[in-house]
Specification:
With about 400 residues, the protein is of the alpha/beta class. It is built from ten helices and 14 strands. It has a six-stranded mixed sheet with strand order 7-11-12-3-13-14, sandwiched between helices. Helix 4 (about 160-185) crosses helix 5 (about 195-230). InterPro entries: DNA-binding_RecF, DNA-binding_RecF_CS, P-loop_NTPase, RecF/RecN/SMC_N, RecF_2.
Length: about 400
């Protein structure tokens, strides 16, 4: 799979941009602050419906504009429900996403308006390497949860609905708990919690599906991450991934369900969705008193973490800067390998990564990704692009994108 043409209207710094793309390696080169990352960010947005740089859509719209439009022609193999299959087996689809901050975004596939933005998921798949990836190792649990959930959705787009259901139920449940907590603190009559059991059921249902998918993903990633780390830093491993469940920990030793507390062995005995549903439901029951006191849901996938181990120790706090970079890159390389095994090869995006790496890691990474069907690279200067990634070049400066 590759993007054959990218069009932007009022996206970030671009009033208009038309960028024809080929398979293989393409590098966008130019001084910092000229819009290189904006181009690859647009591709990533089509793949995930989110940005790797900001949490909301407002910064994606050019200052002074009401909306932004990202449009891409995507070439895939085989047939499908949204496009025709030419004789050579290739299928071309025109995707369009209108970004409307504060309002619902709108999507089109082959000019049809009878689609939701969520329907674009799975058509463009991408794996992004960026300086922000260091937060996967050094950052908060939310960074690692997002990594898992975006990869889950890339593999099975229907799970975007499961994630949305979980977030909706969590929001409603937190509102009820917050109301109860405020009433208690101000000495008033306790809030009506008669519906809390119902919300527990809904949360456990969506949460069990999300938890099952995360556990399956971690198991599939483990050998691939270890292999990728060895390729990037020979002899530096092994590395290990351990899923830390707040539900398994809740009440195990009087805790409130903080991820990483004792009790994760309970996951080993949960062989399916029904068992995970029961695990979550029991954890919510154990944590209810503390949740009512604090006014927030304390257990569930939104409180879990992925422990990254380097040898016997957690990478966070123990790994050096170089080891942390190798770990973050290994997570992305493993994601790429997993998506390739599922079907269409994703677009590889390397956003200003090579300037952050030493020569050895730079060359190893370049050699590993060079065979990709489509690799998009951004760099401030030509010298930052390794020789293994010599291909098409675009100069990006002063709002213009010109092929060299």
């Amino acid at each position: 799979m590759h993007v054959a043409h990218l069009s932007l209207a009022d996206f970030r710094s671009y009033a208009r941009a038309e960028v024809p793309l080929d398979p293989g390696v393409t590098a966008f080169v130019g001084p910092n602050g000229q819009g290189k990352t904006n181009l690859v960010e647009a591709v990533g947005y089509l793949a995930t419906l989110g940005s790797h740089r900001v949490a909301s859509d407002a910064p994606l719209v050019r200052i002074g504009a009401e909306r932004a439009v990202v449009r891409a022609q995507v070439v895939q193999g085989g047939g499908g429900p949204h496009g025709d299959a030419p004789a050579d087996g290739e299928r071309r689809r025109l995707l369009e996403l209108e970004i409307n901050p504060g309002r619902a975004n709108r999507a089109r596939i082959n000019r049809s308006t009878q689609v939701r933005p969520r329907d674009l998921l799975g058509i463009v798949r991408s794996v992004l390497f960026a300086p922000e990836d260091l937060a996967l190792v050094k950052g908060d649990p939310g960074e690692r949860r997002r990594f898992l959930d975006e990869l889950i959705t890339a593999r099975a787009p229907r799970l975007a609905g499961v994630r949305a259901d979980y977030e909706r139920v969590l929001k409603q449940r937190n509102t009820l708990l917050k109301t109860a907590a405020l009433a208690r603190r101000h000495g008033g009559k306790g809030a009506d919690l008669s519906t809390l059991d119902v919300w527990d059921q809904h949360l456990a249902t969506a949460g069990a599906e999300l938890l099952a998918q995360r556990l399956d993903l971690v198991a599939a990633l483990q050998p691939r991450v270890d292999k990728a780390y060895e390729q990037l830093a020979p002899g530096g491993g092994p590395v290990g991934l351990e899923y830390r469940s707040s539900a398994a920990a809740a009440g195990a030793d009087g805790t409130d369900g903080t991820a990483g507390a004792p009790g994760d062995e309970a996951l080993a005995g949960a062989s399916g969705r029904a068992e995970l549903f029961q695990l979550l439901l029991e954890a919510l029951t154990r944590a209810r008193r503390q949740e009512i006191e604090r006014g927030v849901t304390l257990v569930g996938p939104h409180r879990d973490d992925l422990l990254l181990k380097l040898g016997p120790m957690p990478a966070k706090g123990y790994a050096s800067h170089g080891e942390s970079w190798s770990y973050a890159l290994a997570l992305r390389l493993a994601s790429y390998e997993l998506l390739c095994a599922d079907g269409d090869e994703p677009v590889l995006v390397l956003d200003d990564v090579f300037a952050e790496l030493d020569v050895r890691r730079r060359e190893r990474l370049a050699e590993l990704v060079a065979p990709g069907e489509q690799v998009l690279v951004t760099a401030a200067v030509d010298d930052d692009v390794p020789g293994a990634l010599r291909g098409a070049r675009f100069a990006v400066e002063n709002g213009t994108v010109v092929r060299q």
